[in-house]
Amino acid sequence: MNFLAHIYLSNNLDQVTIGNFIADGIRGKKYKKYPKAIQVGILLHREIDTFTDAHPTVRQSTKRLHKNYSHYSGVIVDILYDHFLAKNWSLYSNEPLENYVQNFYMLLQDNYQLLPERTKHMLSYMISGNWLLSYAEIEGIQNVLDGMNRRTKNKSKMNEATRELVKYYDEFEAEFTSFFEELRYFSKEKLQLLTNAIN
Using CA atoms in the order 38, 123, 8, 89, what is the torsion angle rounded to 10 degrees? Predict the structure, then answer.
């Protein structure tokens, strides 16, 4: 899953949210240097990724993209799924998405000293471009995919994947909706287990 889903699945727990957000930049056992609740968030992120990558519904989505995008298909699906979460946000939260993401940006700024250098570098771009809110529109997803393609030096052609998003929009949305219900349940259970194990 991509940024918005990981944040949402942290159950509105500030330190868990921070850990879940920064987890991609924390390798191996380096998570142990962080406060316990952030450790929980990092480990929860890893559990979510493992569950997502192995799930048959997600594989169905990635299979649709594999011919054109090969091993980048999973990354693209993560981004597309964040689009459907943002677009249908009111089904998952009573708080408007605009307020939710602004509170998240404030949380990161208030805990700036805890963030890895990679995250600090990205943060100003994320906030100025309001990435998380922009996910709700196809144009916002296009901007994300454009940026990802540039990072691969245009090898991935990920910028072209909005064609498949538009063409198979209903299929992707149905797969996201089905999968996300399972992921929400899985994450809630896993969060409780990790919290008990680390505390």
Answer: 170
